[in-house]
Records
---
Amino acid sequence: MFGYPKQACLHLPTPVNYLSNLSERLGIELYIKRDDLTEFGLGGNKLRKLEYHIYDAKEKGATMLITVGGAQTNHGRLTAAIAAKNRMKCAVISMDDYPGELSSNMLLERIFGAHVVLHKADGTPIMDVVERVAEKYESQGERCYFIPMGGSNEIGALGYYECAQELKHEFKSGHVITALGSMGTYMGLFCGLHDSSLHLTGIQIMPYEEDILKYASNYFNTVKSAWKLDFNVTADDFDINEDYLYGGYNVPSKEVRDAIYDMARSEAIILDPCYTGKAYAALLDMIEQGKIKKGETVIFLHTGGFPGLYTPNHRKAFEEELIDGVTIL
Ligand SMILES: *Cc1c(COP(=O)(O)O)cnc(C)c1O
């Protein structure tokens, strides 16, 4: 594909399930693409991107991966996992205080043997911290390879270009819904679905500092020149929905918890409170608003993230709501 090789470590394509209980209740044909079931490090969308990053890292002779993320970074967890599998060192850097308890993903990063670096968000540019950490390891003889936030650059997006090829095999038409964070997933799918009759909507899960369509256009142009794509797009071609931020990045929200209960109790599938729960809450609202029509085929991309349920602020909110169904005899 575009001459970009990868190190294949996943069983692809990922499964697709028909959600019969929800389809019947919601009056749509609802499918779920299980990118949460990718097999390393508890799974998730970042692994498809990492197949391409790890290839590039090894080509460049790297012995260590360094990446950055928020406290609730699934990408950090999966980078730590893929580093372990490839016998590489790993450091995950986060601009966060230590609130007295590690997030679930950070604990898992440590279990995978990665070094977790927490730096207070005091205005220090994150790349300064990355450089400091890289220098320390390079002075010990490591060769460091940096992967940006969420793995979302022109290399990472290749993983979702590839997912788009699977979707085109699996569905002739339909409406694909994905959570959108650092945008690599959306952009890879967008480029890959460009020539298909599958429509793609990205549900933004956090505010962007700049205009998101401008950001998407710039990202598209980077990908376009790296991959030598032969089509142009305008900002109008992106379908990015900013209406479902639910308070911002990783903020606990009642609507999102309700959406998580709905999916769990209808289909026995667990979503996460930072990304997929929001995307599913958005889907429910879009159906209610008539933006998704009865009978439509909808393909919900499950991008993973379930350790987020166990992170202190979310866990507490869930437990407060659910304790009334616990009987202590
Ligand atoms: C990172 C992530 C996303 C968003 O993917 P991006 O490529 O960053 O937009 C969605 N869901 C989960 C569970 C994630 O970890």
Note: Residues 44-46, 74-75, 150, 152, 179-186, 272, 275-276, 303-305 surround pyridoxal-5'-phosphate (CB under 6 Å).
---
Amino acid sequence: MIDVSIFEHKKAAYYTLGCKLNFAETSTIGNLLEANGIRKVRRGEIADICVVNTCSVTDLADKKSRQAIRRIRLEHPDAFLVVTGCYAQLKPGEVAEIAGVDLVLGAGQKHEILLHLERLNEKGGKHISVAPVQDIRGFSPSCSQGDRTRYFLKVQDGCDYFCSYCTIPLARGRSRNGRIDAIVQQAENCVRQGGKEIVITGVNVGDFGKTTGETFLELLQALDKVAGVERYRISSVEPNLLTDEIIDFVAASERFAPHFHLPLQSGSDSVLLMMKRKYDTSLFRRKVQKIKDIMPDAFIGVDVIVGTRGETETFFEQSLAFIQELDISQLHVFTYSERANTQALKIDHTVTPAEKKKRSCLMLDLSEKKRIDFYTSQIGTQRKVIFEQPKSGKIMYGFTENYILTECSCDRTLINQPTTIVLGNFNDDKSALKVEIL
Ligand code: SF4
């Protein structure tokens, strides 16, 4: 039995790097500590406990995690410093060596943090509790209110795909998921807390149902019935798992937004084979066409990696040309970085940093052209926006259902309220469209 009296009057600070899943999990850890008497620090306060939820998707992510840990140690010099997340799971020894780290928790231990916090007064002890990834079996539900209006609802974790460049299965374990009835209850909870928009998130959400015998489509159908949710967004779905039934369902649903995030990774079939992806460019093209046939105004965001091992100049040009002909709205461009213990390291051909930079610029230019074209195609249309808490007083921003960023002068009565607007012209830096509120 944990003696929670040791937590009395204690304050905690939280730092999250990486994906929506990490944000959902940090928030759930925060709720757990709050429920046991450890409140969140207020701006400018010094914490007794710091929790850093790290990312390790690239070398740069590792570096940013180390920088964050060092900065937090300086900001909270006497705090008990806990580091968890993918970097902690993949390199616990490396993390523990960082000055000031007191506790390293693995992916399977992060939700048992209370147990480990009993060591609160054993400062500088360098405790590591990280189980081997193959021992991670359980699914820990999580749901967070991001710092904006939307909630991140974790429905699935881990991955069985083992793409040749990726370490996520090594950091988060095998694919597993929560039960539909429990996830529906979490969505109902978001509504009770005033949530209007929920983002369905996981590592490989399309693989939902692996451990419960349910299906992703059944989950979406069940969530669609939750009263009070204004809209859902699906974070990202593997192209081979985005079935025509799911696309038809989204098109017919009042609540599921016409917004798709598809990880393509390369527009060259030869590179897709080397990446061990589970589709080819013709399947991907079919999915995009299917979406645009029944939802012509849908937003389609696409992930692409440049500079992977084996991506020759010719294969890169194939990738660029393939994406140029796709009717999509924006790219998320990632630069490949070597990851330990990945199959990609067996491929001899490498791309120089200068060449990676050049390829990334070409993809980013193409992405900006696609975004401007998509936004332009929507000017004059009527949409619904949920405006977010403004960062500064005068201007507020919000996204339409088809993921167009909009801008208008601040009216606090409209924050987190679904608002019908007509899309106007671009703002000065072309980052958003202005709106006329109806
Ligand atoms: S699908 Fe591939 S890229 Fe995505 S998490 Fe799984 S292994 Fe990594």
Note: Residues 382-437 form one domain.
